[in-house]
Amino acid sequence: MERFWVLSIASLDWTKFFFQTMLNPIDDLNGLGRVMLIPLIMGCSIVFVTMGIQIAVVINLIHYLQKMIANPESRFGYKGRTTYAISSVMTLLFIGHVFQVAVWAFVFVQIDEFSDYTTAFYHSMVNFASLGYGDIVMSEQWRLLGAVEASAGVLMFGLSAGVMLSIMSFLLAHDARLDGFRDEIKKHDGKKA
């Protein structure tokens, strides 16, 4: 029983420290304070929005590819259709990433972190790609947003890589099945003659 009270007191002290750290200003080297909770909540909200964008792009890609593959009268041969599909997927995923970067840049301009959209977009692209050049640094108050955006970028690039691998695997397996069907038809037609 005594051990329970010690753990409870230790966890109470930890939660008190956590909330004081998150809600109260933290003195930095310049004596400026910042509140971490607001950028963290804002950053997580933007991550959910950009995640929704990426998921919407992926779902629309899958529906488009299903229609394209189901259409045997496609103007491309099945090898050309695979090349077209993979190129389309890569292009649309990249456009999805650029749109997510644009959302982050819009937020940076709205919170007056940058005065022009071009600089905000550049900084956002550097954050999203996790390059971290350091040529443009955000203010103390909003610096956490850059780290959250970098984390979101890593997640979104990982999602895109997984989607590309899945789609390429499906298309290559689909092409192999078509080759097998064509071989069977040729064998069957050869036996008739």
Description:
- By secondary structure, the chain is an all-alpha fold.
- It has five helices and no strands.
- The protein has a single domain (38-192), classed as Orthogonal Bundle (Helix Hairpins), CATH 1.10.287.70.
- The longest helix has 50 residues, at 143-192.
- Mean pLDDT is 78; it is low at 3-11 and 23-34.
Compute the CA-based radius of gyration: 26 Å
N-to-C order of helices and strands: HHHHH
Instruction: Kindly report the average pLDDT value.
Output: 78
CATH topology: Helix Hairpins
Q: Oligomeric state of the chains?
A: single chain
Write down the overall geometry.
rod-shaped
**Given the helix and strand composition, which structural class is it?**
mainly alpha
CA(first)-CA(last) distance: 89 Å
Determine the fraction of residues in helical runs and give it as a percent range. over 70%
- What is the helix tally? 5
Tell me the β content: under 5%
Q: What's the total count of β strands?
A: 0
The CATH architecture can be named as: Orthogonal Bundle
Largest sheet: none
Number of structural units classed as domains: 1
CATH class: Mainly Alpha
Poorly predicted runs of 5 or more residues: 3-11, 23-34
